[in-house]
Design the sequence.
């Protein structure tokens, strides 16, 4: 295996005969299956898997944040290849050998599941595309698999939020979330904080324009522009990323937690980036 590629295997005493390969996220530069299994700090997957008897596998996907900070790993072809697609299959063989040693014949009947969110969701799609025979089930949550449009959009939002008066406070974001829930949560037949019918939602941030004095529950013209940039027709929302990157309120420094109130921001189907000439950059 490449020298920077590392992996971790957790083997509960009371094993339920199932094994979950838990995907990473972002630039995948750390190895801590405990962290990504704890819903209190990483609410992105099935909760409490080790406590429920699942064996767990995780990998740093080929590089470490201390020796390859930021995106510097991408300058190394081997590390880039591992990050892009190769690391999961590379570590799965040795990880299986360890599990086989621990559980003996019982391991032959294990169900092998891959689960990941965001960057891990991208990896999950990669497994479905490249390694479908390695897993009995693949769960891809909120896959970050359209990097070009995604990162172009981040830049657009950053530029908008940096304008004077354009930042969205935590209170305003909560108000937007509440408005979306109020309008769209029940459209799927159940008021459960899950907007199940995105296509029917039709939420327009303009509905929240301040008509008098500014309050926490309305948006000024600059803030409305920000909400529109984030919820622009055609692209998946990155509000969550904007919060976690600390971009939303430069004045107060308010940051992401909890994330629940921004999850209902709707995702719309088509995405079109237009360059200065008017030509579409990404479709
Ligand atoms: Ca609902």
Sequence:
């Amino acid at each position: 295996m490449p020298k920077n590629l590392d992996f971790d295997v957790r083997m509960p005493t009371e094993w339920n005969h199932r094994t979950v390969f838990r995907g990473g996220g972002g630039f995948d530069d750390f190895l801590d299956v405990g962290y990504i299994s704890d819903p209190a700090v990483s609410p992105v997957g099935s909760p409490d898997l080790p406590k429920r008897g699942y064996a767990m596998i995780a990998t740093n996907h080929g590089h470490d944040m201390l020796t390859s900070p930021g995106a510097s790993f991408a300058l190394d072809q081997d590390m880039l290849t591992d990050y892009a697609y190769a690391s999961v299959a590379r570590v799965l063989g040795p990880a299986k050998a360890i599990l086989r040693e621990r559980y003996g014949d019982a391991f032959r009947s294990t169900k092998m599941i891959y689960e990941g969110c965001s960057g891990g969701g991208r990896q999950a799609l990669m497994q479905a595309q490249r390694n479908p025979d390695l897993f009995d089930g693949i769960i891809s949550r909120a896959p970050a698999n359209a990097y070009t449009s995604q990162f172009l959009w981040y830049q657009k939002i950053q530029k908008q939020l940096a304008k004077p008066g354009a930042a969205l406070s935590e209170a305003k974001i909560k108000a937007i979330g509440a408005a979306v829930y109020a309008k769209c949560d029940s459209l799927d037949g159940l008021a459960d904080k899950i907007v199940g019918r995105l296509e029917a939602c039709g939420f327009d941030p303009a509905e929240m324009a301040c008509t008098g004095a500014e309050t926490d529950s309305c948006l000024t013209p600059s803030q409305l522009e920000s909400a529109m940039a984030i919820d622009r027709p055609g692209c998946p929302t990155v509000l969550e990323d904007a919060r976690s990157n600390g971009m939303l309120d430069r004045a107060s420094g308010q940051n992401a937690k909890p994330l629940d109130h921004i999850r209902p921001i709707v995702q719309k189907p088509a995405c079109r980036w237009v360059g200065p000439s008017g030509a579409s950059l990404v479709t």
